[in-house]
């Protein structure tokens, strides 16, 4: 691997790293040499993620945590350093889409969705920034979405959170990049994950979405690896405050 993309010696925390895009991003970082802590609620799924990375020669550890609990985030930041040392790469991939019609969105659903997509990334990042500043190196990757700029049915809270994360990414970059901490977002198109299962369970719906891309297909989990490693690496040293759409050209058409 080109040394500018080498993550050897870096420690990464990936929230939502037990499944879907979070797990794929964790595996990509481990494959580039980072020691990876994956955080989520489900212990069994986390252990499967850790085992998969270990089977490929990576170093990984599980952190069972409720990322939707605001009062737990400082503790999560501290616990994340226990397996391998201070975290210098953070991937905020934990999320939820409850898919409620807009008239049926209740306060609890709204608060959960906005906490996971805005509150947790902000406060967890802020808790880890002092260590990144001390290390002289930090990379924070947030997860945006096609819904950062487009509306989809039955997803008002999700869309609000994903729209907000683009601006939050800019604000975090403005505050912390001068300390060597770059903050960017990845906005995935349609990938086969738990959140998009209702779409991919219907081959006709999946085919329609594939046709809306410039490339002519939906994403595979392997497609997220390169952008993740790039934005986490020294190669992205002059890239900050940006949202990279990894969507096969969906938003270009």
From TrEMBL:
Coiled coil: none annotated. InterPro entries: KR_dom, NAD(P)-bd_dom_sf, Sc_DH/Rdtase_CS, SDR_fam. This is Gluconate 5-dehydrogenase. It comes from Halomonas heilongjiangensis. Residues 10-189 form the Ketoreductase domain. One of its GO terms (molecular function) is oxidoreductase activity, acting on the CH-OH group of donors, NAD or NADP as acceptor. Keywords: Oxidoreductase. It holds the Pfam family adh_short_C2. It comes from the Bacteria. One of its GO terms (biological process) is fatty acid biosynthetic process. Belongs to the short-chain dehydrogenases/reductases (SDR) family.
């Amino acid at each position: 691997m080109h040394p500018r993309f080498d993550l050897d010696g870096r420690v990464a925390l990936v929230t939502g790293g037990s499944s879907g895009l979070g797990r794929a991003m964790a595996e990509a970082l481990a494959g580039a040499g980072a020691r990876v802590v994956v955080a989520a609620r489900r212990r069994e799924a986390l252990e499967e993620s850790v085992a998969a990375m270990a089977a490929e020669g990576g170093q990984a550890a599980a952190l069972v945590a409720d990322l939707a609990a605001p009062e737990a985030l400082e503790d999560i930041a501290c616990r994340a350093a226990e397996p391998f040392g201070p975290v210098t790469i953070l991937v905020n991939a934990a999320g939820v889409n409850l898919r409620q019609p807009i008239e049926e969105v209740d306060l609890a659903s709204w608060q959960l969705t906005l906490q996971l997509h805005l509150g947790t990334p902000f406060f967890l990042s802020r808790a880890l920034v002092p260590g990144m500043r001390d290390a002289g190196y930090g990379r924070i990757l947030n997860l945006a979405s096609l819904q950062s700029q487009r509306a989809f049915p039955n997803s008002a809270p999700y869309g609000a959170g994903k729209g907000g994360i683009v601006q939050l990414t800019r604000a975090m970059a403005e505050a912390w990049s001068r300390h060597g901490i770059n903050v960017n977002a990845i906005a995935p198109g349609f990938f086969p994950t738990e959140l998009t299962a209702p779409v991919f369970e219907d081959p006709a719906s999946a085919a329609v979405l594939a046709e809306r891309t410039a490339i002519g297909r939906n994403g595979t989990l392997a497609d997220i690896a390169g952008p993740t490693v790039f934005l986490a690496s020294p190669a992205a040293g002059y890239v900050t405050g940006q949202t990279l759409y990894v969507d096969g050209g969906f938003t270009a058409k």
